[in-house]
């Protein structure tokens, strides 16, 4: 088993001092990817789509898609999504975006309502786990 940490070039940099992904190569060509929680920020670190859950969800999944692609994975490889939202009333907007990306059987999921996230204006944070090459 080999563990590596990175933040792929060409993807919006992390919002703090951490890596975007922990990759665990498990042998036989397979790997598990543990993506850090992503919020909707642009390349300069400003919140994207302030007050708009769907816009923030799209931005987050754009970044997640780039991180997955850098590791030879895609949304079809996602096995678990963990979502932190500041208002469960906005969940239907997030759900519509998710259904666009996961049209078949959805991955396992955990959703938690929180009073706030670490960045003002962020409505949600999403982290995923993916299995690739298996």
| Oligomer category | single chain
Proportion of strand residues: 25-35%
Overall shape: globular
What is the number of helical segments per DSSP (H or I, 4+ residues)? 2
Could you tell me the radius of gyration in angstroms?
A: 14 Å
Rounded average pLDDT: 93
The H-and-E topology, N to C, reads as EEEHEHEE
Strand order in space, largest sheet: 1-2-3-6-4-5
Number of strands: 6
Distance between the termini: 14 Å
Helix content: 10-25%
Q: Which parts are unreliable, with pLDDT below 50 for 5 consecutive residues or more? A: none
Quick gist of this model?
With 134 residues, this protein is of the alpha+beta class. It contains two helices and six strands; from the N terminus they run βββαβαββ.
Structure in words:
The longest helix has 18 residues, at 53-70. It is globular, with a radius of gyration of 14 Å. A six-stranded mixed beta sheet has the order 1-2-3-6-4-5, with helices on one face. The protein starts with a strand and ends with a strand. It has helices spanning 53-70, 91-101, and strands at residues 2-6, 21-27, 30-35, 78-85, 108-113, 124-132. By secondary structure, it is of the alpha+beta class.
Keywords:
134 residues, alpha+beta
Which helices and strands occur, and which strands form pairs?
Layout: E1 2-6, E2 21-27, E3 30-35, H1 53-70, E4 78-85, H2 91-101, E5 108-113, E6 124-132
Parallel strand pairs: 4-5
Antiparallel strand pairs: 1-2, 2-3, 3-6, 4-6
Helix pairs in contact: 1-2
């Amino acid at each position: 088993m080999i563990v590596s940490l990175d933040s792929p070039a060409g993807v919006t940099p992390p919002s703090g001092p951490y890596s975007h992904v922990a990759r665990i190569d498990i042998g036989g060509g397979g790997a598990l990817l543990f993506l850090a929680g992503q919020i909707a920020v642009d390349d300069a670190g400003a919140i994207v789509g302030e007050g708009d859950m769907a816009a923030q969800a799209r931005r987050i999944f754009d970044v997640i898609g780039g991180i997955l692609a850098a590791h030879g994975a895609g949304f079809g490889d996602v096995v678990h999504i963990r979502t932190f939202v500041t208002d469960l009333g906005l969940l239907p907007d997030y759900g519509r975006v998710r259904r666009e990306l996961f049209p078949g059987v959805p991955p396992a999921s955990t959703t938690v309502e929180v009073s706030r996230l670490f960045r003002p204006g962020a409505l949600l944070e999403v982290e995923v786990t993916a299995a690739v090459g298996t």
